[in-house]
């Protein structure tokens, strides 16, 4: 078995134990030095959950302040830091690392590879993240406060008028970017070079496909983000004027550069969830996925379109009519491949032998609620209507509908689906269902009323509001508190599942398909050291 | 191991892509400027006009309004001598802006022009403008600054009003007044 030891494994074993031993090293250093894709995947997932709780606690501060009109709990300046940090931590700390964690765990198992292609780089890309977020979150304790310019950090708010801590923010973004780029390179190298014999591209599970496309998106846009924050850094400290009108630059340029990154970024946060759901729905429908090929092409089309729609975030900055029309139609066009995907998921369920275990509940809710988020996205895409919706709570409702029941429900569905494989135990189904229903109700209660207050004109990112919005905001806050509290139940379920429970068979879901179910549960520390044969 | 070589080759290519995309982020800066100037997007006007207009369109009148705004923290007095001017497309017009430095320190300022509606920006030509240079004013000094402009004869027919706005920025920290003299 040790014939296939990767260079990374050798480095790992040199420090700790000899080559004959195949289990993980003991103690803390196992986690610091590990190059094992399962260990690193686990660390990514725990890190992302920790960030989910921290980012969530920022959201709780926001919702507590918005519970009633008027200023009660925090200063407006601190409120701004909360909205900014909530966005940054959730996007870069919770959602993205969770998907990288799932990729680390599952991609080698799904394509029959012994590990990721570049195991040492894998370790480095994980360990950059605690450094990046330590740096970012520490700014909250500095004298001038943390970043307060919104997660979109528009110049000149983030340059001329930024707090001193903006430099820490810039370096944190650089570290996260390097981590994501290295993670993406690793995913592409694994998928393209380490597939088992017979595992052709069009036989790969959709999770692998969506991650391959996501990885290319990451490589294409994370460097643009790095360039964007580098320009900010130069404007702030080295006297350039990329975004400063006084020196011949243009603040609107910032928005173009940012959204050239930002729009593909939102697909980076959803495509892997599409892939996971495309594995889960067939498993609990006991039918193969309907329209596999069209799913692959739809994903690729969405990824391509994501590069030519960025200015739909900027309809009100004063772009020419022809630009408004182009970006409006290009954005509406995304509904076509997305519609193909939703159609395929529904058709997969059609006449299937459905059962509703927790992963399936989250997956079905994903399809329904993500579609609602997609529809409000179509409303926002209509340029003349967007003049009304822009920067209101309607936008907040829209992107939370695609991110919470989209990305996060996708992650929950994946976690429940693969927990038996990771831990070797079945999770508590009753508690899992309770977690789902509490999340489902809490999430809708928190975000659905935001559509109404947004359409009525409540602006986002403001700590106070008109009295007419009071009732809906109170409902939102109660929903948000219950959604937040519910996530401790998830933590409990996962810990319970790790510590014990009904032993999981190799394939706990009778309709499931894929190489990951051919290995025992829990997955051994080293798998597929001899490549499996795929027919 | 051929697998290792293949991975190395792939990773090299991907890293190259990363470098290209990083450079592309910076390339967006000149691309944006060129696009804005070519299409008059965003109210950006181009530099000094070198072309010439065949004749004056006496039949058509366009009202040009003037606005002077101080950027945040700018303390100069800054205004046009007249709020608007009715012009014929093709004709050369002139407007004077007044600036005064009320402080007891020499200061440098830069005016940034913008034309609204933005689709008219490409048809607004400046043959001379104080915005082409930085302004250095000694304590209490007051200047009259000229802008000479032509409204293009091809200005879209549905545009009857134009607004030329200037925002005045304090760039003393960037360009010390003494050095600029």
TrEMBL record, chain A:
CDD domains: Cyt_c_Oxidase_I. It is found in: Cell membrane; Membrane. It is a multi-pass membrane protein. It catalyses: 4 Fe(II)-[cytochrome c] + O2 + 8 H(+)(in) = 4 Fe(III)-[cytochrome c] + 2 H2O + 4 H(+)(out). Pathway: Energy metabolism; oxidative phosphorylation. It comes from the Bacteria. It holds the Pfam family COX1. It is an enzyme of class 7 (translocase). GO terms for biological process: aerobic respiration; electron transport coupled proton transport; respiratory electron transport chain. One of its GO terms (cellular component) is plasma membrane. Its EC number is 7.1.1.9. The chain crosses the membrane at residues 43-64, 84-105, 126-146, 166-194, 206-234, 266-284, 296-319, 325-347, 359-383, 395-419, 431-452, 472-495. Its main location: membrane. Keywords: Cell membrane, Copper, Electron transport, Heme, Iron, Membrane, Metal-binding, Respiratory chain, Translocase, Transmembrane, Transmembrane helix, Transport. GO terms for molecular function: cytochrome-c oxidase activity; heme binding; metal ion binding. Belongs to the heme-copper respiratory oxidase family. Cytochrome c oxidase is the component of the respiratory chain that catalyzes the reduction of oxygen to water. Subunits 1-3 form the functional core of the enzyme complex. CO I is the catalytic subunit of the enzyme. Electrons originating in cytochrome c are transferred via the copper A center of subunit 2 and heme A of subunit 1 to the bimetallic center formed by heme A3 and copper B. NCBIfam families: CtaD_CoxA (TIGR02891). This is Cytochrome c oxidase subunit 1. It comes from Pseudomonas turukhanskensis.
Automatic annotation (TrEMBL), chain B:
Keywords: Copper, Membrane, Signal-anchor, Transmembrane, Transmembrane helix. Gene3D superfamilies: Ctag/Cox11. GO terms for cellular component: plasma membrane. It is a single-pass type II membrane protein. It comes from the Bacteria. The chain crosses the membrane at residues 12-32. Signal peptide: none annotated. InterPro entries: CtaG/Cox11_dom_sf, Cyt_c_oxidase_assmbl_CtaG. GO terms for molecular function: copper ion binding. It is found in: Cell inner membrane. Exerts its effect at some terminal stage of cytochrome c oxidase synthesis, probably by being involved in the insertion of the copper B into subunit I. Belongs to the COX11/CtaG family. NCBIfam families: PRK05089.1. This is Cytochrome c oxidase assembly protein CtaG.
């Amino acid at each position: 078995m040790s014939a296939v030891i990767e260079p990374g494994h050798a480095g790992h074993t040199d420090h700790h134990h000899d080559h004959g031993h195949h289990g993980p090293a003991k103690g803390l250093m196992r986690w610091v030095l590990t190059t094992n894709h399962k260990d690193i995947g686990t660390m990514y997932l725990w890190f992302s959950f920790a960030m989910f709780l921290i980012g969530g606690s920022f959201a709780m501060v926001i919702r507590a302040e918005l519970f009633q009109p008027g200023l009660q709990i925090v200063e407006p300046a601190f409120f701004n830091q909360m909205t900014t940090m909530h966005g940054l931590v959730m996007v870069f700390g919770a959602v993205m690392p969770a998907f990288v964690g799932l990729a680390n765990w599952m991609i080698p198992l799904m394509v029959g590879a012994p590990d990721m292609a570049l195991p040492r780089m894998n370790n480095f890309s994980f360990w950059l993240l605690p450094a990046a977020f330590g740096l970012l979150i520490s700014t909250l304790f500095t004298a001038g406060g943390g970043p307060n310019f919104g997660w979109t950090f528009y110049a000149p708010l983030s340059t001329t008028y930024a707090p001193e801590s903006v430099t820490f923010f810039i370096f944190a973004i650089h570290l996260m970017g390097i981590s994501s780029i290295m993670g993406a390179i690793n995913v592409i190298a694994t998928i393209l070079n380490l597939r088992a014999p017979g595992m052709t591209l069009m036989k790969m599970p959709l999770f692998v496909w969506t991650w391959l496309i996501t990885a290319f998106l990451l490589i294409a846009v994370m460097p643009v983000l790095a360039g964007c924050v580098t320009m900010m850094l130069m404007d702030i400290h080295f006297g350039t004027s990329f975004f400063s009108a006084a020196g011949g630059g243009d603040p609107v340029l910032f928005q173009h550069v940012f959204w050239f990154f930002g729009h593909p970024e939102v697909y980076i946060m959803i495509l892997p969830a599409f892939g996971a759901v495309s594995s889960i729905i067939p498993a609990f429908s006991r039918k193969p996925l309907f329209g596999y090929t069209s799913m692959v092409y739809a994903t690729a089309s969405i990824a391509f379109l994501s590069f030519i729609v960025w200015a739909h975030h900027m309809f009100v900055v004063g772009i020419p009519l022809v630009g408004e029309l182009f970006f409006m139609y290009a954005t509406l066009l995304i509904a076509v491949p997305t519609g193909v995907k939703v159609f395929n998921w529904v058709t997969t369920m059609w006449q299937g032998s459905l059962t509703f275990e927790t992963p399936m509940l989250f997956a079905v809710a994903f399809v329904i609620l993500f579609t609602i988020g997609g529809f409000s996205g179509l409303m926002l895409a209509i340029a003349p209507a967007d003049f009304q919706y822009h920067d209101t709570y309607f936008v907040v409702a829209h992107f939370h509908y695609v991110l919470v029941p989209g990305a996060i429900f996708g992650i929950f569905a994946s976690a429940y689906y693969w927990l038996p494989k990771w831990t070797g135990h079945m999770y508590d189904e009753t508690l899992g269902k309770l977690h789902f229903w509490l999340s489902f109700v809490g999430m809708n209660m928190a975000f659905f009323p935001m559509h109404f207050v947004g359409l009525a004109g409540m602006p986002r990112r403001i700590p106070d509001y008109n009295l007419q919005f009071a009732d809906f905001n109170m409902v939102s806050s109660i929903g948000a508190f219950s959604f937040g509290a519910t996530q401790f139940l998830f933590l409990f379920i996962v810990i319970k599942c790790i510590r014990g429970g009904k032993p999981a068979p190799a394939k706990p879901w009778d309709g499931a398909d894929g190489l990951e179910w051919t290995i025992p549960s829990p997955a051994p520390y080293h798998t597929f050291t001899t490549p499996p044969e795929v027919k | 191991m051929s697998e290792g070589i293949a991975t190395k080759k792939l990773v090299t290519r991907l890293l190259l892509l990363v470098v290209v995309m990083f450079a592309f982020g910076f390339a967006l800066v000149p691309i944006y400027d060129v696009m804005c100037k070519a299409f008059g997007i965003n109210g950006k006007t181009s530099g000094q006009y070198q072309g010439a207009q065949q004749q004056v369109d006496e039949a058509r009148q366009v009202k040009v309004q003037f606005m002077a705004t101080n950027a945040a923290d700018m303390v100069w007095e800054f205004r046009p001598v007249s709020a608007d001017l009715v012009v014929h497309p093709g004709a050369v017009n002139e407007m004077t802006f007044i600036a005064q430095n009320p402080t007891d320190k020499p200061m440098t300022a830069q005016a940034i022009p913008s034309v609204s509606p933005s689709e008219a920006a490409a048809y607004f030509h400046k043959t001379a403008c104080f915005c082409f240079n930085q302004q250095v004013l000694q304590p209490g000094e007051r200047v009259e600054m000229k802008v000479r402009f032509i409204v293009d004869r091809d200005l879209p027919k549905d545009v009857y009003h134009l607004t030329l706005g200037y925002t005045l920025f304090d760039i003393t920290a960037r360009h010390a007044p003494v050095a600029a003299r």
